[in-house]
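User: Before I run my own analysis I want an independent prediction to cross-check against. Here's the chain; please return only the structure tokens and, at the end, one sentence I can use as a sanity check.
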Amino acid sequence: MRGEETAIEPQRPGGGELALGAWRELQSEDTELARLLEAETNRQRTTLSLVASSSVTRPSVLACEGAVFGNLTAEGYPGLRFHGGCVNADRLETLAIERACTVFRAAYANVQPLSASIANQIVFASLMAPGDTMLGLSLKAGGHLSHGARGNLSGRNFRARSYGLSPNGEIDYDGLISLAQRVRPRLIVAGTTAYPRQLDFQRFRAIADDVGAWLVADITHIAGLVAAGEHPSPVDAAHVVTTCTHKQMFGPRGGLILVGRSGAQSAIDGEPLTERLQKGVFPMMQGAPNLNMIAAKARALGYASTPAFRSDMRRVRALASHISATLQTLGMQLVSGGTDTHIVLLDVRGSLGLSGKAAQDTLESCGVVVNKNLLPGDPLPASLTSGVRIGSNSIAARRMDAAGAEACARLVWEILAETAAETGLSPGSIERFRRRAADLCRCYPLAYDL
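Assistant: Structure tokens:
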């Protein structure tokens, strides 16, 4: 009747019934896409992933990525939005910020960056003017595109110079000092994407202070190890820290900007550093944030504060160490002679006369996934490379033990050794290796069922 109020029963946010209903709707309305999702789920379950830049996202994180927060537009920050209806969005972003600060022991966190690469561009544009000089680790030495590579925006907007490695395969800090004193950079990046050893962030800071440069630490590859205390933290050594939330955080593909105590006390042109970074994300570089991604980040950061996560990170380091030791015993050449992190970098050209691309393609045909990678002084182009990068994040998510890691290493070596032999891999060998990879996946199923 008119004038009477109708009681509305509260609805549960998500849950198994909603997920099942959404999946059934997808199957009925778009069978082609549903089949692709099923195929990829099966591939991940049955393929041995040793890709260093990947991990396995927890189901609770995936649930957040598909949540109703995606229906909101929320330009701005908590309490300072340009749209209405953001009361829960404000609570969500505040929760994610608090968790990021707790996990990384930071004084400031911005959880809106859409990726670590975008976070880097935001930080660079906030701290430098176009044409300023910056230093980053070279691509062939294990640096990242966003650290000043010529093909990247960072290499186009700024005068990027590269530092490299010493003959032992570790960062050449003496060479970095000489380069920094010669070119007087505005900013130095301490970060890697294919470097297996620990970084000395205090030494980086001393070099930056000596030449009056900002120090930005990109911990994208070691964020989980840093959060768990398995790698020294740069949060108080660097002025700014950037990272992604997948790889070792088992979270969504997104980025974070963090500032520690020293950075929180810094200013640029009289403006507090944290305020400059806040404006750098919005409105300078991004518009409305992806709230679903922020929800997923909050969930991943919540897990990262648990003893279970710290156990995961100890496993990540241990498995990489077992793989490294086994491959060396089998005669493989490793850049820097081993690993302190989750990365093992193989010189397949020097060990077996293969290109990285040939090794990657052959391993994938046998059910093992890695990625080709440039090596220090690599004579081959990035499309071929002389190396292969292996990582232990995903097998740690399988709760693999030392025996499993050694079995992975032996499988990789046997596949590559047979590929390098005169007769090469036969169809029968490929099938035999595929069965071994599948058996390892069955023995060590994914801890988070997809």
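Sanity check: Residues 14 and 63 are 8 Å apart (CA to CA).
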